[in-house]
Amino acid sequence: MWTVFWILLTLAVFAEIWLTGTVARFLGFWNTVAFIVLKLVLGIRLAFQHGRLTLEKLRAAIQNRQVPGIPVIEGALFVLAPFLIMIPGFLVSALGALLLWDRVRSWMAEKLRKIGIAWFSRRFLR
Q: CA of 35: how far to CAs of 27, 48, 64, 113, in Å?
């Protein structure tokens, strides 16, 4: 399992490097650098906004005495998105941009919840 993970991670890194080089050849070096810096600034701004919104939702759920299951996962993905946008590279930034959409975030949160339940069941409920 870990071997597959490391192989996929290595392939993703090489894909990022290749795509960044391709974009740099198309846009030019300085335009690519400017775009990466712009993504960094945008990601920082989004991180502050989304972090605050997520904490407010979590606080409201706790005050209403609700168990914040899916909202916590969605909140974590919501906070993760700007950090993915800040990372230099285009594939990871695209994933971060996708996580800003509610439908994608809800779908991914549900998948992660199911994976977490299956892992917990295998690990602790034998």
A: 10, 20, 43, 35
Structure tokens that stand for 46 in this block = 């989004």
Rounded alpha-carbon distances, angstroms, from residue 43 to 38, 39, 64: 8, 6, 31
Cα–Cα distance list, 73 to 49, 57, 96 (Å): 17, 12, 15
pLDDT recorded at residue 36: 87
Q: Residue 98: what pLDDT? A: 92
The tokens describing 81, both together, are 């998105």
Segments making up each domain of the chain, as ranges: 2-124
- Global pTM value: 0.70
**Residue 68 pLDDT level (bands cut at 50, 70, 90):** low
